[in-house]
Every structure is written in C-alpha cells, then in structure tokens.
Design a protein that fits this description.
With 62 residues, the protein is mostly beta strands. It has one helix at residues 29-35, and strands at 14-17, 22-25, 43-48, 51-56.
C-alpha cells in the first residue's frame, strides 16, 4: 500500500464493525501520541455543531 500524500494525512474513512451496528474511525498515530492516549483507553464522544468532539474520559469524583 502506498503512503498518503502529506495533504491527505488526516483524511480517514468510516468503517462498519460489530455486525454493522457500529462505525469505526482510525485516528492518526501522531495525534494519539501527542495526546498521551493509550490503547483501550476510554474516551467520550460528543456531538457538537458540525461534527463530533472526542476527549479523554474522566471518572466522576465521589
């Protein structure tokens, strides 16, 4: 598979998973590393005007 051009580096495709009940999205590894995120880490996905917001999940304090 050929490498993407730098201008296309942040273009991603949505893919079906879980028998078509979910849609997956890959994130550029550079973004994940910059945020300090790890594999299987919980994140919050929130719908916002014009797109989505993905941020680190923080447990509610007791």
């Amino acid at each position: 598979m050929a490498r993407r051009k730098q201008s296309e580096n942040n273009i991603r495709k949505l893919t079906k998973s879980g028998g078509g009940k979910s849609i997956g999205l890959t994130l550029p590894i550079e973004v994940v590393r910059d945020l300090g995120w790890k594999e299987k880490q919980k994140v919050v996905v929130k719908r916002v005007h014009g797109g989505v917001l993905i941020k680190d999940w923080k447990p509610a304090s007791r």
